[in-house]
Amino acid sequence: MKILDPKLTLAIGSMSALLAQGCMVGDGEVVTDRDEDHPPLADAHELLEGAPKADELDRVYPKADGTLPAQFDLVDYQTPVRDQGRRGTCSIFSTVALMEHLYMVEGTISEPNFSEQYLQWSTKFELGRFPNTSGSTASANLAALDQFGIPKDHYWPYESVQWNASDDPECEGDHMPTRCYTNGNPPDEAVEAQTYHLPGGSWLHPNDIKAHMKMNGQAVTAGMTVYYQAWNHGASSLPLNDEHRARGVVLTPNQEDLREGDADGAGHSILLVGWDDELTIQRRDENGDPKVDAQGNPVMDEGFYIMKNSWGTDSWGSENEYGAGYGLISQDYIHEHARIQSSDLPSEVVPPGGDACPTEGGAVDCEDPRCAEEPVCEEDANEIAFQGSGGDIPDNDPVGVSSVIEIEEEGTVAELSVDVNITHTYRGDLTVTLYRDDEAVVLHDRAGGSADDLVETYDVSDFDGTDISGEWRLVVTDTAPLDTGTLDSWSIRAVVE
């Protein structure tokens, strides 16, 4: 199995966009009593509305044909498989799965987990699309991500069951208010939190899927009509295959399966994360038996895409070799029945700490969910962290700006680091000094020339073995004229004994 090295594959820009996808069961109704054999599906007519067919698209990577490896995957660049539960929100989940994947490839956030719950609300209320249904389209979802963004998941975790009359008396019948489909409005913390965005893009010819993945290191979304027997979905009137269901295998549909699926109009969207050209599995006929041709020869599906689904990990795809909740779908199925899109890497990524744990004036509050990833909040951690205030740096003034952190915690310093965040138009003007009582350590001494800003972490060993409690003071001076700046923030992290 080939594993992507993103440093070698991100040089070529990606083609982008997301496929229109709404997720209801085939008759357009929200699933309210899901069991493991009947995961929620999409309305295929809504999902594919306006999507161009392959023969209407130009190839982007025609020269890549015949030069790609037989196996390739991006599984190592995926967040955990999620579960959309009983709600018709698969387009939300496929969009967010792509977004989290692209943030992982971009690299600023190592374990992104964004709020599907918030995107459902944003698409309907902020963007004003699909206000009277549980579904949406991925193109609408992407527009909401581009214009408004979404916060991390812990600000508004996903709720797997849509509101009904027990939650709101108006949430029943055929004409419910929009809030019923979004489970109300987001909490204030979610509205006020840092939001993350994703840009738009374009349709992708199905024959360019592999080249796009390999050359750009990016997965793609696929929206399609669902043929029940091929998916081993309980809505099928044809025999199913439990082994294929557990493995998440989706074969090319037979004629009876095509007839049934086209008549019902169900659909689904997934994330394609790789392929295996050498995998072959015998197709099934309408009786569920291995399919053979007129001469009695096995009819094989040759070549499969690896998919990430949003039906959880307990049943469908629970025994997939790439991980529970993943699946394998025939390349012929995708090329004949799916519409493919992708989105570019995030272009304006918030640096680490942009959605910062609030530590102003004291120790990190581990009860705040924003602080969950802080080292001090890890189990058995012996690290403490404190945040200092900022201020304008006087120009050409040896006194500079001073900020004090008063630490009351007891303990002996074993390790200490200082994070400094300074905005300045000529960092070669600056001197940064840390004071502890009468001892001073220069962290930065007029280095960097004309480069802008100073955002650094300094490991300081001079205070090892001293008491952490007491006054710590940072002084920033600018001793040259013209260029100015601000001490935006600074903090102390210490491992104490």
* CATH architecture label of the largest domain: Alpha-Beta Complex
> Helix tally?
12
| CATH C-level of the largest domain | Alpha Beta
Mean pLDDT, to the nearest integer, reads 86
- CATH topological fold name of the largest domain: Cathepsin B, Chain A
Largest sheet: 9 strands, mixed
List SSEs in N-to-C order.
Answer: HEHEHHHHHEHEHHEHEEEHEEEEEEEEEE
Strand content bin? 15-25%
CA(first)-CA(last) distance: 45 Å
Could you state the CATH homologous superfamily of the largest domain? Cysteine proteinases
Helix content: 10-25%
Q: How would you sum up the global shape? A: elongated
Q: Can you tell me the number of structural domains? A: 2
Radius of gyration: 27 Å
**Unreliable residue stretches:** 1-22, 24-34
Number of DSSP strands?
18
Brief summary:
This protein is 19% helix and 25% strand. By secondary structure, it is of the alpha+beta class. The chain starts with 5 loop residues before the first helix and ends with a strand.
